[in-house]
């Protein structure tokens, strides 16, 4: 909706040019090519995974469906955002990287029964990088807090 509104506004804008008089700033067709196909539309959930901090191995995906949708290489490059520092835990976060948009809500549970006295995890939804994911944020938060 916001993208469509922006396209309509930009296609109607004109500005004054000394040599050529009035010219269109951008046509709607040119503006559409600057966005990904389906930009701003709700996209399906492509994968759900549980990332956790293992006391020996460090950040890892302990469970995901479908299997191997997020490769080890991709996860290793974004693991600092999946299992973040304490300052940004219990905050809904969206990571758009490497062709994926990942929505998560990192959780930290302090308890002496865990190794290192803490359990860090993040239940994440993975969508296409162009899709709108704001509708999944309350679901991810609720699931994370429930676990």
UniProtKB/TrEMBL annotation:
<dbReference type="GO" id="GO:0034198">
    <property type="term" value="P:cellular response to amino acid starvation"/>
</dbReference>
<protein>
    <submittedName>
        <fullName>Uncharacterized protein</fullName>
    </submittedName>
</protein>
<comment type="similarity">
    <text>Belongs to the NPR2 family.</text>
</comment>
<dbReference type="GO" id="GO:0005774">
    <property type="term" value="C:vacuolar membrane"/>
</dbReference>
<dbReference type="GO" id="GO:1904262">
    <property type="term" value="P:negative regulation of TORC1 signaling"/>
</dbReference>
<dbReference type="GO" id="GO:1990130">
    <property type="term" value="C:GATOR1 complex"/>
</dbReference>
<dbReference type="GO" id="GO:0010508">
    <property type="term" value="P:positive regulation of autophagy"/>
</dbReference>
<dbReference type="Pfam" id="PF06218">
    <property type="entry name" value="NPR2"/>
</dbReference>
<dbReference type="InterPro" id="IPR009348">
    <property type="entry name" value="NPR2-like"/>
</dbReference>
<dbReference type="GO" id="GO:0005096">
    <property type="term" value="F:GTPase activator activity"/>
</dbReference>
């Amino acid at each position: 909706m916001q993208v469509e509104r922006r396209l309509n506004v930009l296609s109607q804008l004109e500005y004054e040019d000394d040599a050529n008089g009035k010219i269109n700033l951008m046509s709607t067709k040119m503006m559409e090519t600057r966005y990904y196909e389906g930009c701003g539309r709700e996209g399906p959930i492509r994968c759900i995974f549980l990332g956790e901090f293992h006391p020996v191995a460090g950040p890892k995906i302990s469970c995901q469906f479908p299997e191997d949708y997020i490769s080890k290489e991709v996860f290793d490059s974004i693991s600092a955002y999946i299992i973040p520092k304490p300052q940004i835990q219990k905050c809904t976060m969206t990571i758009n990287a490497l062709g994926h948009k990942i929505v998560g809500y990192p959780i930290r549970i302090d308890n002496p029964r865990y190794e290192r006295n803490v359990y860090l995890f993040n239940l994440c939804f993975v969508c296409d990088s162009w899709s709108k994911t704001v509708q999944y944020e309350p679901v991810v938060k609720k699931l994370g807090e429930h676990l």
